[in-house]
Amino acid sequence: xxxxxxxxxxxxxxxxxxxxxxxxxxxxxxxxxxxxxxxxxxxxxxxxxxxxxxxxxxxxxxxxxxxxxxxxxxxxxxxxxxxxxxxxxxxxxxxxxxxxxxxxxxxxxxxxxxxxxxxxxxxxxxxxxxxxxxxxxxxxxxxxxxxxxxxxxxxxxxxxxxxxxxxxxxxxxxxxxxxxxxxxxxxxxxxxxxxxxxxxxxxxxxxxxxxxxxxxxxxxxxxxxxxxxxxxxxxxxxxxxxxxxxxxxxxxxxxxxxxxxxxxxxxxxxxxxxxxxxxxxxxxxxxxxxxxxxxxxxxxxxxxxxxxxxxxxxxxxxxxxxxxxxxxxxxxxxxxxxxxxxxxxxxxxxxxxxxxxxxxxxxxxxxxxxxxxxxxxxxxxxxxxxxxxxxxxxxxxxxxxxxxxxxxxxxxxxxxxxxxxxxxxxxxxxxxxxxxxxxxxxxxxxxxxxxxxxxxxxxxxxxxxxxxxxxxx
Length: 473
Prior knowledge:
The protein has 473 residues and is mostly beta strands. The protein has six helices and 29 strands. It has two domains: 40-148, no CATH class; 166-472, Methylamine Dehydrogenase, Chain H, CATH 2.130.10.10. The radius of gyration is 25 Å and the shape is elongated.
């Protein structure tokens, strides 16, 4: 899947955890309930995230002070004197002194001061013993906070979000598309909204159904902060049922794919680790390998399920042996980031798409050798997909167009025009008669493969009404 080095600002969402509401008045004859103790994770951590972590993290430890683990937070940095945390004694805790109006230097440094309520809450937490209610004092509590937070997508979107992932449902009646903290479903017959799978990180980067329709996997993340792949079981006529989290990481997970028989699911992302899980065992890990020097952007299983091909921002594509758990060959010819990868129908060659505006077909018998290249693209190729019968290769990218090629000889079958922005995602329907494409401006299009004609144009943002030229399309 395509992942640009830089992107426009997207919707920002930060979970605001609030203190419990005040207890209702009790009858005079009864003792009023005690006030609930202050929680670090619920009450204190969100204040620190909003005001402190940007300057006091492992990458940018101002004053040699990182706060991202409780042990480091309590230890303090090199600047100033005093005890950072003195449980039970806020007046003797340097942290409380610095956030007060007389703090020297007053924190947050050169930013708006904390409110009286925030200072009071932090002081009360220290007075109550400055207890940590995470899992371990040495863990990254910001990572844990990301895992625990729940963001509810808006009922109606105020703006569109980029469509960085699309997939047809196993029966072909719907297309799943990436949303804001959710996966949305759209009917192929009329483009109507038909389901929302919520509870996901901010951006969905990839989605896949197993061929037998029993499994759904989603790769997603909060950019630069948290990444996750999630596995669901699927029953006809029912909402997907969550099974387990996969590939949790401190940056986005970009790619997910099932083996042809659905027994395995693989993930890859910004941490450069290729992971494989056993779906029959409920998502238990099978193996992992770190062989790429940069983000893994896409991956796919061979037709027999024995091999995995990957695409990476390190400008290479690789083939791995799933059974032997090792890398077989590396293909470096793109010399630009490789965004998408597909196996040839016979499993003996790989098609990779890159920033060099080329689809390169190469074999991997002992070493990687290019067989041919498919050009004619007007810019970087961000997405590629192969029809179920292996005859049609779809590619799209920076020139806003979707092209359908004959896989065997690279001949252009159709050029699909209509998108007004970069196209980031492609998927064929299970019967191969339709192809779906998603673009940066939030538009989802469904096309007829045989004649290249558009079937549906959908603004894939629930509740958002098309405006301007979108409404005219």
